[in-house]
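Interim report, section 4.2 (structural modelling).
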Amino acid sequence: MFSTILDPQDLTKAALAILLCPLAGFVVQVFFGKRLPRQGDWLPTGCMFISLSIATWMMTVLLSSPHGIEPRTWLVVEGWLSSGAGGADKGLSIDFGVLVDNLTIVMLFVVTLVSFLVHLYSCGYMHGEERYNRFFAYLGLFSFSMLGLCISSNLLFLFMFWELVGLCSYFLIGFYFEKKSAQNAAIKAFMTTRLGDVGFLVGILIIAAFAGTLDFAGIFASLQNGTWDGDAKWWLTAAGLGLFLGALGKSAQFPLHIWLPDAMEGPTPVSALIHAATMVVAGVYLVARMFPFLAGPGYFTGDFFSGDVLFYIAMVGSFTAFFAATIAFVQTDIKKVLAYSTISQLGYMFLGLGVGSVSAGIFHLFTHAFFKALLFLGSGSVIHAVHSNEMDDMGGLKKKMPITRWTFLIGTLAIAGLPLLSGFHSKEAILGNAYAFADHMGHGEHGSWVHYLPFAFGILTAGMTAFYMFRLYFKTFEGKPKNEHAFAHAHESPWTMTVPLCILAVLSLGSAGVAGEAAHWFEHRVHSEHLVTIAAGAERVMDSVNDTVHDFHGLLSGVSMGLFAGALLLAFCFFIPRGPLFGREKGVARALSPLYVSLQNLWYLDRFFTWLVLHVLHTCQVICGHFDRVFVDGFVNFWGSVCRFFTGAAGVLDYWGVDGLVRGIGNSTLAGGRRLRRLQTGFLQEYIYASLYLSGGLLLLVLVFYVLVK
Amino acid sequence: MIGSFGTCFSAVGALLAQASAPAAGAASSGVGLQHYLVVSALVFGLGLLIIITRRSTIAVLMGIELLLNSAGLNFVAFAKYSAGADPLDGQVVTLFVIVIAAAEAALALAIALNIFNSINSVELDDAHSLKG
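Predicted structure of the assembly:
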């Protein structure tokens, strides 16, 4: 059996095996979890370990060849859903298929690794919680959904797993559902991502209508055979924007980023798994997978930017990165800083994709997963120790928690972009491509300063990232403890928590150690061309872009290192006790108070949405209610009155006409009788007299008649 | 007015009888059929007059007798003057009529007595409770 699954030539069966392990774990855990020893935490963890092993094996297959593997699709159930009355080309047929290519393998590796480490970590962190067994069940379900999302071969199944992932996020954020804030956060997350999903669904429908298929291969084929030319170009842009809207919601980009900071109500392992490394990158994965589609037909000539969608993606991504970094400056809750940092880094990934480089975006996804998971798990370790999320309760923890401290420092250095670490290389790749994009567009016919904006935002944000991350590190681990009571009770975490931290630290270092190689490694294997081959003429454009990237590389590295050093220095000054500006951050905050207040209020975005929903929708409701009462009910009532008028008329007719006739007969009979009664006087002799009159008359009549006849 | 009407009535009756009677025997000399019929008509008229006019019940009964007797007279006259009939037939019928008249008179008197017991009077005007 193993040889059939682990076949290097056809990795799809192995991928399906990876998918089914966590599902099995989930099913058993849900029904029997409570009764298993240790409430069954070892079961989903074990299943994830199996999946991880298979994924690592797949990664070695990927590593062994210079250009990765050939993409393969395996239709597990063909025609799972098919409709179409007018023949094969009119109908829509959807199969349950597994697609494995370089991108898939990278995603599988990341997801299984982080998931397994989080499972292990939760054994320590969630120890003693109520509903412990249910937590692992949810984690298993989530892993299943995320893996399914990565291996789907068509958009519909991707969407189904997408929704399932959102559902698991709802469960996990609202895990402590006794807290009202957790309930609200879960609902907010679900609703906000749902809003994005409306766009996603619209995009899917447009694609289904025009391309007639939801298979990735089929969609890319439709780009080449002219389905989207002419008037349909508008529809292409619309579908692309729709898909991006879905990614925007799920990956917490501006303006739908509001759910991610609130999602920190969930347990820390959840934050590490879902909101740092896996679920939020579903949007990035979608954009990467559909990259040829989003680039438009120009993809096949290498001119990625003939359509507008990619540029919008780059703009939104870079703006979000900048925007979230500004808010992270003033957060005091350790998890909130990391949440805004995640939003910012996701912006970077979209920036990388938007400027045309799938490899840069996915490379950043890869490195970010490791160091962000590391940072979250490390913060979880700190929170577990001091029983509080606020940085005001921390400080000076380096003595008490050495392992956590060193791993956290490695993570911080990685995200800030210390040269030689993984984060540096992935950011370089992105910024390099952003500059090349600006350069390339500048030489085109519509070049203008806006094309430099993504790059500008990116560079600024890099500096800001370094600053606020070091702020976080210094306030937590350096200096004097601010809360003596918490400090006294702080202790290092158990092995189940520190081992994942160490593994992730090694990866954050190590994926860089293959450093110079790693970037190129990614470039060669996870490249847009491996999604679908492009025409030969495109080679020239691609080459010129790559040349710009390489030329600029040296200058860019210098600038980045300068920024890193500057930010580190600034953070040193403010937050290290011996620094000259120590304790002066409050003064700076007062001096810049309008800015400070806006940042504290998260740029008023949450308040804006609340206002929008409460007041604007309420006003709409009032108007609609008014309309309903006045016009709709008025119309109905009018017809009611007309009806009443006619029934009244009928009633009158009935009373005076029909009943009148009946009564008239009765009355006339009575009147007649009254008249006739006068004949009956009661006097016998008058009766006889009357009868004489009658008979006399009769006789006269007969006589006359007789005479006449005679 | 009532009297004149009564006479008129009998005269008409007599004329009719004369017109329709089969060829009576001696029409102008001696006593013919019409003489009997006139007498009978006169008696009938008288009887009718009494019935209509008299207040007392007994008087009305007497008028009824006259009526019946006039009818009997008619029978006898026709029996005598009819060509193919036996004169005895008329007389026998009249005998029957008299018997019936007597029975009916007895009955009527019994009824009158009952009425007297109720209303304490023999005048017909007082028995008007069947007024409508």
